[in-house]
Amino acid sequence: MKRRMMWSLMLTVALVMSAALAGCGKGDSENVKIRIGEVTRSVFYAPEYVAVAKGFFEEEGLDVELTTTPGGDKTMTALLSNVIDVALVGSETSIYVYQQGTDDPIINFAQLTQTDGTFLVAREADESFDWNSLKGSVFLGQRKGGMPQMAGEFALKKLGIDPKTDLELIQNVDFANIPAAFASGTGDYVQLFEPTASIFEKEGKGYVVASFGAESGHLPYTVFMAKQSYINKNKKAIQSFTNAIYKAQLWVESNDAETIADVVLPYFENVDRDILVSSIDRYKQQGSYATDPIIDEAEWNNLLDVITTAGELEKRTEHSELVDTGFAEKAIEAMK
To answer: Residue 144: exposed, middle, or buried by beta-carbon count in 10 A (0-12, 13-18, 19+)?
Structure first.
C-alpha cells in the first residue's frame, strides 16, 4: 500500500512538472537529440555504453545525452516530467505508473537485459554449494519491493525456500550500504550486483556461489521506455535509437569480455580492468545481455509472476498494454 501511495504522489508531481515543461518535445528529424536517463551506472548495461562508444547512435543520426538518474523513482519522475526523453529502468516501473492511472502511459520498446543481475555471495568459497544451505542462515537481501529483491525471492521460492520462514532476511539496509554491511560482518550470504561481487572475490571478502539471474528465468529486467506521446511524435528517432541498440547487442554477442571491457572502460573510471572483464564475462556466460531488443510476451508474463508473488501487483497488466515490439522487429529486419 505504501509503495502504491508513493507512486501515486510521484505521478502527481511529475505531471505538474510536465505541464511546466510543455513544448520541449521534438518532432521526427535528422540528428535529433535524445536524452537518456539510466537508473544507475552499471556494467550490467554494457551494450548501452557500446552503442555510444562505437558510434552506433551517430550512425543512426542521433545525438544522445546520457545521464544517471539514481533509483527507479527518480528515473520515472524525470521521464514523466520531460527532463529525459528515454529511460533505461526496470519494466515494473511502467506498470506501477500505469496502474495509478494515466492518459499517457510509459511504453517499453527495447530490451537491454533479460535476467536478474544479482549473484549470491557467501563468506567462504563453496564449489559444491546447494541452495538448501540458505535454510537457517542470515541473508542480507535487497530493498523490499525492488526488482532485485522480488526476483531473488521468486527464485528462492522456485527452489523450495521460503524467504520469510526458512531464513533470517535482512531488508533494512540501503542499497548503497549493502556491500559495506556484509563486509563488516552482517549476514552469512548477500545478494550483490557486479562488479561488486568480483571485487569481493578479489579482496577475499566473499565468493559467488550461485546466480539469481540463472534461477529466476528470462524477464524484461532493464528496458528502454518512453512516454506514448513522445513515441508518437518521434517515431523515426525511436526507430533509429532501437537500431543502434540492436547493433550494440550484436557487437556484444560476437565479442569476448576483454574486448567489450576495453570499449566500456571509460565509463567505469574507478573499476580495474580485470574486474570489469570478470563482471562482463559472468553476465555473458549466464545470458544476461539481451541479444535483440524484443520484449516477448513470455518474458513479460514471467515479470508479472515475479511482481505478483512479491505482493506488489494489484492486477496483471497485459503485454499489449505497455509493450511495443514494432521498433525492435524493424531493427532486426533491417540488419538481415
So the answer is: middle
Domain final position from 186, 216, 246 = 216
Which residues touch 288 (CB under 8 Å, ≥6 apart)? 44, 113, 114, 115, 117, 213, 221
CA distance 165 to 181: 22
Q: What is the mean pLDDT of the chain?
A: 91
pLDDT tens for 29-60 read 468 999 999 999 999 999 999 999 999 999 99
Residue 27's pLDDT is 42
Question: Where is the domain boundary, 180, 196, 216?
Answer: 216
Number of domains observed in the structure of the chain: 2
Cα distance between residue 305 and residue 158, in whole Å:
12
Instruction: Give whole-number Cα distances, 149 to 65, 191, 212, 213, in Å.
Output: 30, 9, 10, 12
Give the global pTM.
0.88
Residues 244 and 226 in one domain: yes
Q: Give per-residue burial for 171-202: e unless 16+ CB within 10 Å, then b.
A: eebeeeebbebbeeeebbbbbbbbbbbbbbbe
163, 134 Cβ separation under 8 angstroms: no
What is the arithmetic mean of pLDDT over 161-190?
93
Structural domain of 33 = 2-115+219-334
Mean pLDDT of 94-121: 96
